[in-house]
Design brief:
single chain; alpha+beta; OB fold (Dihydrolipoamide Acetyltransferase, E2P); seven-stranded mixed beta sheet; four-stranded antiparallel beta sheet; 19 strands
Amino acid sequence: MATEVTVPTLGESITEATLGQWLKKPGEAVKADEPIASLETDKVAVDVPSPVDGVMGAQAVAEGDTVLVGAVIAQIEAGSASTSATPAPENKTAVGQAEKAAPPEPAAAPAPAGGGNDALSPSARRAVQETGVDPSTVAGSGRDGRVTKQDVQAAAAKPAPSVSAPAPAAAPVSSANGRKEERVRMTRLRQTVARRLKEAQNTAAMLTTFNDVDMTNVMEARAKYKDLFEKKHDVRLGFMGFFVKAAVQALRDVPSVNASIEGDEIVYRDYVDVSVAVSAPNGLVVPVIRDAQTLSVAGIEKTIGDFGKRAKDGSLKMDEMKGGTFTISNGGVFGSLMSTPIINPPQSAVLGLHRIEQRPVVLNGQIVARPMMYLALSYDHRLIDGREAVTFLVAIKNAIEDPTRLLIDL
């Protein structure tokens, strides 16, 4: 008896996703709650777990296909891999829900010269038959280099090279001087990021102000206490804990930076939810530290560390990336010296951190080398005046240069 695997609820207002990758092949044994597929949504990649123990059966959709919430995407057969090695007939339910107008699957045609057709998914085979593209000439973007339907369609859309004699069927498409191009479909996450960032530029009256900060005292405090801190709290002491605490205090003193515009109203908040950008395999994601004003430096570092681990393994939840009243983005970990970060709507400001480097500064009349970092605050000038933006950034600078301020609430 087979158990259907359906697309889970993906979060508020999200009704569809893209099947990014199958993690199990038909005939492979699976355990309950083991991920069998990865879905790409507007915000993050989400794993689809198997509901039961059994064997991976028919896969009703191919990598790259759009699926609706609740659609059947696969079946899990009862038994073990040794007893159910042959996959069940393909289930068309999910395909019917996602592509009601799609024609029935034609019988597989013999492999064209060059081979490779027998390894294609059903949707990719159909695309090969419809376009006449030789799959052996297509660079696969799917799992283990597998050719997907989108790869075939992209290859078919490329214009043939202008030559006096037809090229051999197996020759790759390239220009006369041997240079090649590759077209890769944007992920759903990248499309959403692009749209939202452009909306921010079109909507907000965005302006950036800069300052620099001497990191000497924070670096000395970190070097002095990092071992004791890690031993007591089981987490490393980084710089983000200091900056989040400094931001919380500065946001309390300059509340407009923590506010937002909704229609013709300004929404002020007595809480601080800090969005922090962390790296994930498919790009940056921005989970939210809720009620950061209630957390200690240790609590902040633990939260950020947990976000970083789960971003890498794709287990961040939708709700953890919603909301946020202020964003901190640390481009310094990638070597950025200075940047103008873009606001994350509907927020009104974002703080950009950059790399620390030794620079000459004048201190007590002497030129000395100090570890300096550039700070950038991009803000919506419709809501935040220049005086408020500069005051906020100077408050961050003062707290970092004299961390005692964070302890005695100055």
